[in-house]
Amino acid sequence: MPVLLKKQMPVLAKLQGTGVPAYGPEDPLPEKVDLRLAVLNLMPNKEETEEQLLQLLADSPRRVEVSFIALRSYRPKHTSPEYMSRWYEGFSTLAQEGIDGLIITGAPLEHLDFARVLYWQELTEIMDYARARIPSTLFLCWAAPAALWHYYQIPISLVEKKISGVFPHRFAQRSPLFRGIDPPLSFPHSRYFTIKPDSLKDTDLGIVAKSRAAGISILASPEGRQVYVAGHFEYGRDTLHKEYFRDLARGLDVRMPEHYYPGDNAQNPPPWSWRETAAKFYGNWLHYCAGRKGAWKKR
């Protein structure tokens, strides 16, 4: 189904150039939009993450309009203020218009105390609003432990060696998130944290998927109001490759991404083995957004 960008962002030309059914406000949309989504993009490379997420959403069975959120309390280091002010919008503006689903991306902040994150106060305000008023929120990578700390006071558990690779998972329970997906569920991870089972004992969270090597990878609250994904369904074919060689260039002691390069040879182009699964997962998550559309709690 087509994805509509609320603004005529630069990524639109890239998507259209590769045949992705993407439309801007200046393009005639062939059909009515089903859902309004907002993305809080905290990743350093904004444009790459925009493209990755929009590709998956364009493969979903629902027509979605997507807007990107600019934080008022933080100016990104790797993106110009002009880019942010032109193509991103304030959360309050989008909330007034109505948000059916929210995506909060990861950020390379695992080793920083949450209270020291420059935009932590604003982020928690958005998370509180989402919990009360948005049908479903998808927390990706670092955003997952950030939300677990804010909602449940579950401290982040760091690991010494980076968890990096494409790991197989088993389904820990039946979930609408896996509709049309056959086990094992494989998708990329790139993180320095893990989620400990004991930390979830006094919560209403359900473990949805876990891996022998990568641990608990997907959690969900009742009825899918919040979905926590420790990995990166949205990663492109070469994202782990670029991160691996970036880390090596920085002199970091990192392992080669597991189950990624054919023959464990970094000279071999990796297959995009999780692409179809990722599109189905995002499409299934949108069912949560649509199922509770207009049913959020009133303040």
Task: Give a brief rundown of this model.
This protein has helices at 11-17, 46-58, 81-87, 91-97, 120-133, 143-152, 239-249, 275-291; strands spanning 3-5, 22-23, 35-40, 64-70, 89-90, 101-104, 136-140, 157-171, 185-194, 206-211, 215-220, 226-229. It is an alpha/beta fold and 299 residues long. It has a single domain, classed as Rossmann fold (3-Layer(aba) Sandwich), CATH 3.40.50.
CATH superfamily assignment? Class I glutamine amidotransferase (GATase) domain
Taking the alpha carbons of the first and last residues, their distance comes to: 34 Å
Structural class, by secondary structure, is: alpha/beta
- Find the count of extended strands (DSSP E, 2+ residues): 12
Q: State the helical fraction.
A: 25-40%
Q: How would you describe this structure to a colleague?
A:
The chain is an alpha/beta fold. It has one domain: Rossmann fold, CATH 3.40.50.880. It is built from 8 helices and 12 strands. Helix 1 (11-17) crosses helix 2 (46-58). The longest helix has 17 residues, at 275-291. The protein starts with a strand and ends in an 8-residue tail after the last helix.
